[in-house]
């Protein structure tokens, strides 16, 4: 398990981050700190692999905390989760080795993506195999290959790949029934796959009012750069 320290002075935000973290497999909460000084103490007392770090905190801010742990050569990774959106803060965080940067407010899916990418990176780095350029490009720098999201129970990755390929062949909006017939699975199953893809921000739902009757939900692809391999 990847042990995570949440450093956040707002109790409500810290609790939200804790709940989000609990929804991603492979991670466990090590502790929650409300200040940079408290976080430094916890790092000395507990095993921590990853820090979810805010910048705006009383006393030592997040960037000062990050500089301190790098100066102390602490072997811990950091993802910034903060309202700071100025280029200087972002550049400073990256210069100090932050592996990702999330700007508040953010959707759960964005944090989920960051954690899944980090988990994939850790798995690769903990292996003893020698890496080639393709390994680095696909699994560390994410060029040419998407980080594969966790699938809800009941969904199959191969079927998801088939559904996504069918969507890529569709130019305009489509209904659940239309896509179910194209792929050859039930309408109920297709709706689960389409709703999952919508949760990943690659599809959106539009209402088609037509000429008579109730409006029909139609899906439209809004991110053709995404990849969901079989």
UniProtKB/TrEMBL annotation:
Keyword list, A-Z: Activator, Cytoplasm, DNA-binding, Phosphoprotein, Transcription, Transcription regulation, Two-component regulatory system
Keyword Phosphoprotein: yes
Entry's Gene Ontology cellular component terms: cytoplasm
Residue ranges of every copy of the Response regulatory domain listed in the record: 3-119
Residues annotated with 4-aspartylphosphate modification: 54
Molecular functions (GO terms): DNA binding; DNA-binding transcription factor activity; phosphorelay response regulator activity
Superkingdom, taxonomy of origin: Bacteria
Compartments where found: Cytoplasm
SUPFAM superfamilies documented for this protein: CheY-like, Winged helix' DNA-binding domain
Pfam families: Response_reg
Keyword Phosphoprotein: yes
Signal sequence bounds: none
Name this protein carries in UniProt: Transcriptional regulatory protein
Protein species of origin: Thermosinus carboxydivorans Nor1
